[in-house]
Amino acid sequence: MRENDMLEKDEIFSKVLRAGRRTYFFDVRATKAEDYYITITESKKFTEEDGSFHFKKHKIYLYKEDFTAFKEILEEMTSFVLNNKGEEVISERHQKDFKRDYVSDNQEETPQAEKSFTDINFEDI
């Protein structure tokens, strides 16, 4: 067994975030010297045409000496995105089954009956 595999067996504390096809695992682990570090793993499910599936995983190792800078930059980046683009997930609009659940401020909602109504002037007939 590789040394990294042995290190990863010492889970101390874990949290899971399920986000659609992606799952994020946050784990506190211990080194051989009994110091702690964090692993963040993204696991994404891919389904094949035949119905079978597999997962792709990406892992980040975060050590204590980097916690403060990592946290500051993560907070700055997330604030920047939310302040500039809001919380709406724009990519959802591009999914095949996307349906808007709300009306934006600059659009007026048209009742369904009006959408299917055709205005005909009988003098033109």
Description:
This protein is α+β, with helices and mostly antiparallel strands and 125 residues long. The protein is built from 3 helices and 4 strands; from the N terminus they run αββββαα. It has a 4-stranded antiparallel β-sheet, with no helix packed on it. A hairpin with a 5-residue loop joins β2 and β3 (36-47). The longest helix has 19 residues, at 67-85.
Low-confidence stretches: 109-115
Query: Can you list the strand order of the major beta sheet?
Result: 1-2-3-4
Counting DSSP H or I runs of 4 or more residues, the number of helices is: 3
How far is the N terminus from the C terminus? 85 Å
Percentage of residues in DSSP E strands = 25-35%
E-strand count? 4
Shape: flat
Please give the largest β-sheet: 4 strands, antiparallel
The topology string of helices and strands comes to: HEEEEHH
Helical content band: 10-25%
**CA-atom Rg in angstroms:** 25 Å
The chain-level mean pLDDT equals 78
In short:
With 125 residues, the protein is of the alpha+beta class. The chain has helices at 3-7, 67-85, 112-115, and strands at 11-19, 22-30, 36-47, 53-63.
